[in-house]
Amino acid sequence: MRILHTADWHLGKKLDHFSRLEEQRIVMNEICTIADSQHADVVIVAGDLFDTFNPPVEAIDLLYKTLKRLTNNGKRPVIAIAGNHDSPDRIDSPNPLARECGILFVGNPDVTIPRLIIENGFEITQSENGFIEIKLPQYEFPIRVITTPYANEMRLKTYLGAENKEEQLNHLLQNSWAALADKYCDTNGVNILTTHLYMLKRGGEILEEPDGEKPLRIGNADIVYTDCIPPQIQYTALGHLHRFQNIGGHPSPVVYSSSPLSYSFSEAGQEKKIVLIEAQPNQEVKYTAIPIESGRALYRKRFESIDSAVEWLLANPYCLVELTLVSDTFFITQDLKRIHESHDGIIFIIPIVNKDVNRNQQTAKVNLDQDIQGLFKDYFVSKYKQEPNEELFALFNEIIGSQAKNE
């Protein structure tokens, strides 16, 4: 059985002011193409379908069209759980209609998907809170999926029926997952867990959450350790962290598939992936990370001349850039205009002025007997550690001239 694992689509997300929606349309098309070309039998989307609780209409439209296409007219079940960026009620709301198309949404941890038969498609043969078993006509064995969408610690305890609210989250999840696995996940089917949580190998290195991501880890209180995963589980499909990685700590793979696009400059240089799992009952799974080619690459670039910056920008048009410009003087308007006219994907410009140029002037005393232009120059040097350029001087003189006329 071939299962495709993806996560963290963040549809509707912007990088500062820059919309990523057109890139997201392209990358969603690529994911659908991969699903078809790899003959995927099942697709799992492990949370953060949207970037906000109230996504734009275009993002909602893109989600439903993508998931509908991924179902291959109901032949391929698509399981999509909520992440911490998603409104669980919004994810659950289209469930009755979505199920008839082969899309299985799980927004809240207590969702029970009813048994059903998709005509010319698949059948849900067993179901319980946080669990579904699916029978595909082309296989003699079923796939079982334990589903735990994101919820904060208190809500998880409420949904999972903790008698003692002080009970440790790890212990609660371990018991809940073990009960489902012991009841349903024997060796006669493929057994998968999918969740959107901050998971870590016990004793492992703390993994950094992406910039701009709503953090799940508050100190160590919300870390869920991989030794909570039942031994019957053959693959754990995670969402939340945006870098592809198998975090370990369990006999079977525990994998963050990565986001399909780089969504912050801390992700610059990361290769984005989607994971293809090949699974049979009672055997180790094989999984392959397939690189995603679509979308603009993110770069953090540093230049010490405007000419070098413009040359690079013109040679690399299809990317998004955080641009650091180093100079001995402040940049004039014409310089910044050249920069912006050379590229449409500049997100941030970070000017750095060398403060060593006039180091000796840091301790110089201000001569109060000089004219106002001299005072302005001394003030500017004391504050910015460099002399003002001609454009700033001209602007200052224009202001002084205007004030003199008004007087």
Would you write up a description of this structure?
The chain is of the alpha/beta class. Helix content is 28%, strand content 24%. An eight-stranded mixed beta sheet has the order 7-8-9-10-11-14-16-15, covered by helices on one side. A hairpin with a 5-residue loop joins strand 7 and strand 8. Helix 1 (21-37) packs parallel to helix 2 (57-70). The termini are far apart. Residues 357-361 have low confidence and may be disordered.
Q: Using the CA coordinates, give the radius of gyration.
A: 28 Å
Shape: elongated
Give the uncertain stretches in residue-range form: 357-361
Count up the helices.
10
How is the biggest beta sheet arranged?
8 strands, mixed
- Give the strand order of the largest sheet, numbering strands 1, 2, ... along the chain: 7-8-9-10-11-14-16-15
The assigned structural class equals alpha/beta
Q: Name the helicity range.
A: 25-40%
Q: Beta-strand level of the residues, as a percent range?
A: 15-25%
Mean pLDDT: 89
Q: Quick one: how many beta strands?
A: 21
Amino- and carboxy-terminal Cα gap: 84 Å
